């Protein structure tokens, strides 16, 4: 069923700045447009501050057409995949080493890797690494999985998830325990190397690992996915959004230092009218995003003096 939302999307848009400005500083023409074209609080009570959103739109000719819009409320839903974490080791900049799951999906789509390929190396023990393992497993692509922690480490995300609620991740955790290189399991397409770290990537696609005792192993791989985390790019916010975080002295991090929000509305506690969704607010599961979106929608509807759904 069509909802008529297409007119509200602006593809090819890059936001460069979001900041609060005094409503008095907005021209009377812009203010009149805000009043006429939105079901906002402008019609009921005078706002003293609004958000000015600056950026540019890429035209078909490749030019950058600047824009400025004003809004009483802004929702941050940019995700946290802008700046992947690097290992900082030799060879990490080689063409077969990637830092996003989409690289594996693209390689499978282009048939550049398959069942008969050398194993795909997946580095990391988080949910993104688990998603990569599940995708490779579904495509029957052999995997070498390297991670620093013990499989039984309480800090490992898989040890914190209810088995019944997350059966797919429990499956990955089970493979991590049963399919180690020292103890071959039933699945020949997956090898787990717990308490290992990568020393270097070679131009010949040979990768050197080291275990906790200093013993080294060498494997030939087809491609590597370093999925050890990422950070959002919030350069469009004042002070890179640091002032919005749980710890206002540290950069925003989806796991350790998310943006502090009201748990019922997802409105930033440090900036009224600004909302944050998904990993920015600490919701690192896709299945949680809907709840946050509904919370924001409900809050905005209440602000506009409408009945919530």
TrEMBL record:
<protein>
    <submittedName>
        <fullName>N-terminal EF-hand calcium binding protein 2</fullName>
    </submittedName>
</protein>
<dbReference type="Pfam" id="PF13738">
    <property type="entry name" value="Pyr_redox_3"/>
</dbReference>
<dbReference type="InterPro" id="IPR036188">
    <property type="entry name" value="FAD/NAD-bd_sf"/>
</dbReference>
<dbReference type="GO" id="GO:0008083">
    <property type="term" value="F:growth factor activity"/>
</dbReference>
<dbReference type="GO" id="GO:0030308">
    <property type="term" value="P:negative regulation of cell growth"/>
</dbReference>
<dbReference type="InterPro" id="IPR029731">
    <property type="entry name" value="OSGIN1/2"/>
</dbReference>
């Amino acid at each position: 069923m069509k909802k008529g939302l297409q007119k509200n999307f602006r593809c090819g848009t890059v936001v460069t700045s979001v900041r609060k400005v005094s409503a008095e500083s907005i021209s009377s023409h812009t203010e009149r447009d805000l009043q006429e074209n939105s079901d906002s609080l402008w019609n009921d009570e005078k706002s003293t501050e609004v958000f000015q959103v600056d950026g540019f739109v890429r035209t078909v000719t490749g030019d950058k057409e600047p824009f400025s819009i004003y809004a009483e409320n802004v929702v941050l839903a940019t995700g946290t995949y802008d700046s992947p974490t690097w290992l900082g080791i030799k060879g990490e900049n080689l063409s077969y080493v990637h830092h996003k799951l989409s690289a594996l999906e693209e390689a499978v789509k282009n048939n550049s890797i398959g069942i008969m390929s050398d194993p795909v190396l997946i580095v990391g023990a988080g949910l993104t690494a688990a998603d990569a393992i599940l995708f490779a497993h579904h495509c029957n692509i052999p995997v070498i999985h390297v991670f620093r922690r013990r499989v039984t480490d309480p800090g490992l995300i898989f040890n914190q998830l209810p088995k019944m609620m997350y059966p797919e991740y429990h499956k990955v955790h089970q493979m991590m325990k049963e399919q180690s290189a020292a103890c071959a399991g039933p699945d020949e397409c997956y090898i787990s190397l717990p308490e290992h770290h990568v020393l270097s990537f070679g131009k010949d696609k040979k990768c050197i690992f080291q275990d906790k005792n200093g013993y080294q192993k060498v494997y030939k791989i087809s491609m590597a996915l370093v999925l050890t985390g990422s950070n959002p790019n919030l350069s469009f916010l004042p002070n890179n959004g640091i002032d919005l975080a749980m710890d206002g002295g540290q950069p925003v991090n989806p796991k350790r230092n998310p943006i502090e929000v009201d748990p019922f509305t997802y409105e930033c506690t440090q900036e009224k009218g600004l909302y944050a969704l998904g990993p920015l607010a600490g919701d690192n599961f896709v299945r949680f995003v809907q709840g946050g979106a509904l919370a924001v929608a409900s809050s905005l509807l209440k602000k506009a003096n409408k009945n919530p759904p």
